[in-house]
Amino acid sequence: MYQSSKSLFERAQQSIPGGVNSPVRAFKSVGGTPVFIKSAKGAYMVDEDGNQYIDYINSWGPMVLGHAYEPVVKAIQAKVALGTSFGAPTELEIEIAELIKSMVPNVDLIRMVNSGTEACMSAVRLARGYTGRNKIIKFEGCYHGHADCFLVKAGSGVATFGIQHVPGVTAAVANDTLTCAYNDLNAVKALFANNKEEIAAIIIEPVAGNMGCIPPAEGFLEGLRSLCTEMGSLLIFDEVMTGFRLAKGGAQERLKIDADLVCYGKVIGAGMPVGAFGGRKEIMEHIAPLGNVYQAGTLSGNPLAMIAGYTLLHELKTNTDRFSSIEKKADYLKDGLIKVLDASGFPYRINHLGSMLSIHFSENDITDFEAAASANNARFNQFFHAMLKRGIYLPPSAFETWFISDALSYEDLDKTIEAAKEALAEIE
Ligand SMILES: *Cc1c(COP(=O)(O)O)cnc(C)c1O
């Protein structure tokens, strides 16, 4: 069934570390051979052996309207013949910046980069430059990309592989990153009390998605907002996952909280390498060439990446029914999964907000990383494989969120629920 993938994986390991260019793709946590993808269209991916999958990763988020979305493909095709990169400004960069500003009212200025990692790394540098303070607070299990300062209790791939201390990150850098449990406002207050006037920023996933999906508890983000205002620290929302997915204005709009700086990635590039960070003018003006906080990129604002992102964002802005359509599908899937999970007798929790969803096999509510880590993740791994062989492609780790796309049909969702029923009957 996976013969070509198996031999490609063998071959890949001869020239690429672990055979992959990003760790979670290696299936190390769930075991087995990663499937090599040949092509994708709409809700489906096809592997090198010709197996077809209903896709719930959607490139880890970007393909919110499905793969090879026709308007994006056409826009890239039209643009590519005009040159692939100039290293000089283009009108299209203004257009996408203006479009994002019209979707996210508290962004006055926005800078394009090439990945979510770069966006978060640059936002933290800016927060430090702006406040003149060194320390940041992040939450256990939140992932903000692989910059040094974030590789402390970092969720996602780091959690999947059980990495505690990341070699290569110096103690000096790690010590400037303070951590506490997600949803624990009192712990944040204690960090502020013990580090008076030292904290440049809190960075947070407003809906956590890198320890499975964990929505914020009632009042938690509001509490962070007022603490930051009171203490002169910046609140950075890492909306790399939630941005342009939970609403056209992202989690800020959906949860009605204004951050000081916002980071984007994933959906913003429609599958091309794009990230961005933005915020209020008086903060963003500290970035070079206006200010002294240096940040740059040879390929930033790349025309192919910009036209892909612009085309997708424009559709999401003008056709806001898209969000309700995706959410109805997510609700439908959730309800169906609840039925088959109830019938299975396994203890479980489903966390869900908008088009983000995840299952933990646990008797406890999953509100932070400790709870996510204490779930029966070996059972999830069996579930993953039982679903994969039925043509359902889930994220290959219990610490990752399922992404629902608008390309999914109700028939696809029914197939998924039926597969889950069979899978649950097969696993232990
Ligand atoms: C994926 C992700 C990142 C990192 O983005 P890359 O494009 O992989 O560098 C940062 N923050 C969050 C919340 C993410 O989900």
Automatic annotation (TrEMBL):
HAMAP family: HemL_aminotrans_3 (MF_00375). GO terms for biological process: protoporphyrinogen IX biosynthetic process. It is found in: Cytoplasm. The keyword Cytoplasm applies. Its main location: cytoplasm. It is an enzyme of class 5 (isomerase). The gene is hemL. It comes from Taibaiella lutea. Pathway: Porphyrin-containing compound metabolism; protoporphyrin-IX biosynthesis; 5-aminolevulinate from L-glutamyl-tRNA(Glu): step 2/2. The modification N6-(pyridoxal phosphate)lysine is found at K266. This is Glutamate-1-semialdehyde 2,1-aminomutase. Keywords: Cytoplasm, Isomerase, Porphyrin biosynthesis, Pyridoxal phosphate. It catalyses: (S)-4-amino-5-oxopentanoate = 5-aminolevulinate. Its cofactor is pyridoxal 5'-phosphate. Belongs to the class-III pyridoxal-phosphate-dependent aminotransferase family. HemL subfamily. The lineage of its organism: Bacteria, Pseudomonadati, Bacteroidota, Chitinophagia, Chitinophagales. GO terms for molecular function: glutamate-1-semialdehyde 2,1-aminomutase activity; pyridoxal phosphate binding; transaminase activity. The keyword Isomerase applies. GO terms for cellular component: cytoplasm. Its EC number is 5.4.3.8. Homodimer. Pfam families: Aminotran_3.
